[in-house]
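User: Hello! I'm new to structural biology and keep hearing that structure can be predicted from sequence alone. Could you demonstrate with 5'-nucleotidase? Please show me the input and the output so I can see what each looks like.

Assistant: Of course. The first part below is the input, the amino acid sequence of 5'-nucleotidase. The second part is the output, the predicted structure written as tokens.
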Amino acid sequence: MRVLVTNDDGIDSRGLTILAQTAIDAGHEVAVVAPHRQYSGASAALTAQEENGHLVFVEKRPPGLAAEVRAFGVKAAPGLIGFVASFEAFGFRPDVVLSGINLGANTGRAILHSGTVGAALSAASHGIRAMAVSIASGDPQHWQTARNVTDEAFAWLLDNDVDDRVLNVNVPDVAPDRLRGIRPAGLASFGAVQARVKELGTGYVQLTYTGVEGEDEPGTDHYLLARGWATMTMLRAPVADDTGLTLPRVDGTQSAAEGHEGEPLVDVSSGTVMSSGSDAPTGEIKGEEGDGEVGTSV
């Protein structure tokens, strides 16, 4: 089985090495492809830096990774890495994408903004089994605990039919003998940290960031993580949900959703479009000369 390891903390993160070693020790082929710098908060953004219309690769490796494991950095967001991996951009189409181990928890609905989770969701939306792993510290002291939980979660992922869902794993930064166990968990109402507008002024907005208490939400990922449990939560890649949706008729006989055969209802973009079909994307990622940050329309 072929496993691609990525993250949003950048190619220099030790968390990549932990994930890679889990897959290697389970007998799988591994490649590590991660952003050249930190992309925290990038969600599933398809942004990149380019030169002459091409993605730029960087000769860097995670610390402690075995020399025989292929690894390099890419000047791209983790969501884009997960996306182009599905088109064999890195030499093979992975069977599994492992994203992390993120420095800091990814809990609650705030996972919407996580580059770590975004990479996994991007891969899952293209039919690739995926898992995101995070440890609840910006400076972890207990990597062995993260490794132990990752081993268990990875084995579970391979043994179960997850369809287009992503397994989101959070690990407390405690010694292995202090870990209370692994629990399934729901999403907290937000996450470990929440931003609020502190002040509005002419030409600026000032934000403040505060920790979120999990006292009122037993059974959620943030609540259990704060009490020494590792958590596993299933996330679903974006799907349509038209429950209760009633559209007005546009001509008395036709629903606005039906359109005319062979005609698009709306021309949404005349720019670069990256297809999610079976063929490789045909649009180039374009921007200014050098290292300009650019995006794609999807």
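User: So the tokens describe the shape?

Assistant: Right, they're a compact way of writing down the 3D structure. Reading them back into a model, for example: The chain is about 15% helix and 25% strand.
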